[in-house]
Amino acid sequence: MNASHGLEFAQTEVARASLDHCVKCTICETHCPVSAVTPKFTGPKFVGPQAERFRHGESVDHSLDYCSSCGACTLACPQGVKIAEINGQARAVMKADHMPLRDQLISQTTLMGMAMTPVAPVANAALSLKPLRTVIEKVMGIHRDAPMPKANTQTITGWLKKRQNPATKATRGTLVFFHGCAGGYFEVETSKKSIEVLEHLGYEVLVPKQGCCGLAQQSNGLFDGATDKVLKLCDDLRSAGRDLTIISSSGSCTGMLKHEAHEIMGVDDSRLKDVGTRIRDIMEFLLELYEAGELPTDFKPIELTAVYHAPCQLKSQGMGQPAMEILKLIPGVEAVESGATCCGIAGTYGLKKEKYEIAQAVGKPLFDKVKEVNPEYAMCDTETCRWQIRKGSGAQVEHPIFLVHQAYGLR
User: Fold this and answer.
1) Number of CB atoms found within 10 A of residue 50's CB
2) Does residue 119 form part of some domain?
3) Taking each helix axis from N to C terminus, what angle separates 188-200 and 282-291, rounded to the nearest 10 degrees?
4) N or C: which end of the chain has fewer CB within 10 A?
5) Taking the CB of residue 277, how many other CB atoms lie within 10 A of it?
6) pLDDT, mean of each 10-residue run, the chain (411 residues)
7) pLDDT at 2
């Protein structure tokens, strides 16, 4: 597949099949978390289907770059208009001839992980220094207070090479695990606990060498690079076996494979279709097992009341909130649904100097909810959302798989 197809698709197709279904009911406006907190974004209806009719390859309203791509508008639209997808495609066209260097750099997530891991303690200490962060803000446009990932001294690949054989013998078949960039370099503990839970359930877990899904590039309008990455990733995952279920604890990256690569970038490739059909979010997979009567529920009690926030990327996949259903099975756990539309981070959106305050304003109701229910602990399925909630609330925020792992008595 030609990599330039992504931008060509955005320039010509732009979700036209759904565009004229818009009846200007403004329901999308009432669900938009960004336009509710800033006048810089004029709202999904105007920037999306209304403006698209007049673009002809050029943006008529540059406020569309303030769309966070959370997808709330698409989910809310009763007419099925793909508003967020329209905005994402239009933004790629708008930025094609003046792509900021910052947006190119912050979308290189694998490179960031590879650079920080060997010097993790130094990198983490350096990123906590306000003078250095101020310089980075002035030079690169990344806000001095934006949440930053914590580097690990060991990658998930390094852990897999050194670990002992699983304690539980594989009796239920083989799965492939996709950890994503963050799960490979920054949120390594989430990947480890996910693999250990799957092995505890009796599965052999294969973790092939794998690259980036391209989501950060896609969200910044770099469609061609993102297309290359997502198709290379599909090859990586397919190398482990063509008929195996693929499991991931990275909700946003799973969404890229299931939805965004095709719906926003127009990637129409048999490899993506194959992987997108076989991949499951880990909590979605556990719920499927439970509904089939195949999930052991011998959970140990955990006395905990805490907020659970379902990320935007998870909602866009149409799976509901499987984590809430699984957490209900653990004695003593009371998961309080956040009720928040979005945490505000939207991948790299909330890192940018001009968007940081907007992202914090969007996330404030969620931060307040966490502080009200349990200021020490909260749960969320995607990595950047966890970084945002940790920063905004001060709580320890982990993937729900942490509680499943603990309830099974795993160490």
Assistant:
1) 17
2) no
3) 20
4) C
5) 11
6) 58 67 91 95 87 67 87 93 89 84 91 92 94 95 94 94 82 95 95 97 96 93 94 97 95 93 92 96 98 97 98 87 97 97 94 96 98 98 96 97 98 84
7) 46
**284: in domain:** no
Nearest to 381, CA basis, from 319, 333, 331: 319
DSSP bridge pairs for 176: 206, 246
Secondary structure of 186-205 in HEC code, one letter for each residue: CCHHHHHHHHHHHHHCCCEE
C-alpha–C-alpha distance, residues 382 and 362, integer Å: 17
Predicted pLDDT at 11 = 60
95, 110, 143 - which closes a domain:
95
3-class SS at 142?
A: strand
What single-letter DSSP state applies at residue 119?
A: G
User: How many Å apart are CA 178 and CA 311, to the nearest integer?
Assistant: 18
Distance (Å, whole) CA 246 – CA 117: 26
pLDDT of residue 3: 45
Structural domain including 20 reads 5-95
The pLDDT score that the predictor gives to residue 170 is 85
Q: How many domains does the chain have?
A: 2
Is 116 part of any domain? Answer: no
Burial class (CB in 10 A: 0-12, 13-18, 19+), 349: buried
Task: Establish if 46 belongs to a structural domain.
Answer: yes
Distance, CA of 242 to CA of 45 (rounded, Å) = 41
**Model-level pTM?**
0.92
Q: Which CATH number does the domain housing residue 339 bear? A: 3.40.50
Placement of tokens 């905004």 in the chain: 392
- For residue 218, which of 292, 75, 144, 109 has the smallest C-alpha distance? 109
User: Residue 333's beta-bridge partner residues?
Assistant: 304
Question: Are 104 and 76 contacting, i.e. CB atoms less than 8 angstroms apart?
Answer: no
70 close to 342: Cβ distance less than 8 angstroms: yes
CATH number reported for the structural domain that contains residue 14 in this entry:
1.10.1060.10
Alpha carbon distance 116, 71 (integer Å) = 31
Residue 203 contacts residue 172 (beta carbons within 8 Å): yes
Q: Which of 75, 95, 115 is the last residue of a domain?
A: 95
**pLDDT value at residue 1:** 47
